[in-house]
Amino acid sequence: MSDKIRIGVLGASGYTGADLVRLAARHAGVEIVALTANTHAGKEMGEVFPHLSLLDLPKLTKWEDIDWTGLDAVFCGLPHGTTQEITAAVLKANPAARIIDMSADFRLRDGATYAEWYGHEHRAPELQEEAVYGLTEHYRALIADARLIACPGCYPTAVLMALLPLVREGLVDANDLVIDAKSGVTGAGRGLKQNTLFAEAGEGLSPYSVGKHRHAPEIEQELGAAAGGRLTVNFTPHLIPMSRGELVTCYVRLAEGASADDLRQRLVEDYAAEHFVKVVPAGVVPQTQNVRGSNYVQIGVFPDRISGRAIVVAVIDNLVKGSAGQALQNMNVAFGLPESEGLLQLPLFP
């Protein structure tokens, strides 16, 4: 009898679902037993993603046809708004299952905030109350015992890894945070959208959801908790003509007496024991190509030429640390496995 963790992946035909399968397939403690994709039901995974055709995987199935009682963990890569009722149905069928949700449906703790930003009331408020925010390095003690883990969005992951220790320690002014963020086109999902067509996105750079991106309240929720009060951030995302990768440039006002070196030292000390977080030395510039395909975060701090200010730069792979890799990392924590299991892939360069 296998002692492996039996997992299912909801939404396996999306980019995050496929990357979860790619990573989990090489996890020594995992057995992939169910993959769902209603529009591709009946197909082999290799038909939808040829790069996975060498793997021995179950066929894609409608989620309603899965026997959830035989699974230990379920990863959810469905679009926002579709996860709540399906998660409730899965947990009704198998209350002992651990849900690791990569969608936005359980990230916001306040129901009114969710309704404001996502356009409808939360459809599983009782589950929302028990969800634990899945930023692994900062919430692992809660993740270890959670039944429902809400993995952060890709932008919040990069921003929070860079700023949470600094806000918590009062080294920067939490009410003066400007975040310039850039992501590859996979961050928009695999669905057909005009702005991600090659002719539209290629050879150009464009902001989107200016002043109204749904990751802003998620960032504010976590930084506000660290600061001890509500706050508002200036956050603007941009679409970069590359497949994967994410870079955030955070402009901060230093607390009285603090310097850029103090910020860097704080980050070094906070993340000293973390396998996946690398704070670079002074003068080294983080680059997306340094983390591509990996679960690593690279953070750098620079003095601004404006007195009293500093610039904090963080890079991640939006599909790995920003989604599927962090989800697998959270599963490792939840099941008491070594946290880096299945995630030791080095960045792919060039």
Which fold name is given in CATH as the topology of the largest domain?
Dihydrodipicolinate Reductase, domain 2
State the distance separating the first and last CA atoms: 42 Å
Oligomer: single chain
Mean pLDDT: 95
The outline comes out as: globular
Name of the level-1 CATH class of the largest domain: Alpha Beta
Helix content, binned percent: 25-40%
Features:
350 residues, alpha/beta, Rossmann fold, Dihydrodipicolinate Reductase, domain 2, 14 strands, globular
Could you characterize the architecture of this molecule?
The strands form two sheets. This protein has a seven-stranded parallel β-sheet with strand order 3-2-1-4-5-7-6, sandwiched between helices. A seven-stranded mixed β-sheet has the order 9-10-8-11-14-13-12. The mean pLDDT is 95. The protein has two domains: 5-130, Rossmann fold, CATH 3.40.50; 155-319, 2-Layer Sandwich (Dihydrodipicolinate Reductase, domain 2). α3 (83-93) links the parallel β4 (73-76) and β5 (98-101). It has 350 residues and is of the alpha/beta class. It is built from eleven helices and 14 strands. The chain starts with a strand and ends in a 16-residue tail after the last helix.
Quick synopsis:
This protein has helices at residues 15-24, 45-48, 83-93, 111-118, 125-128, 136-143, 154-168, 198-201, 215-227, 260-270, 320-334; strands at residues 5-10, 30-36, 60-61, 73-76, 98-101, 132-133, 148-150, 172-184, 206-207, 234-240, 246-254, 277-279, 297-303, 309-316. It has 350 residues and is of the alpha/beta class.
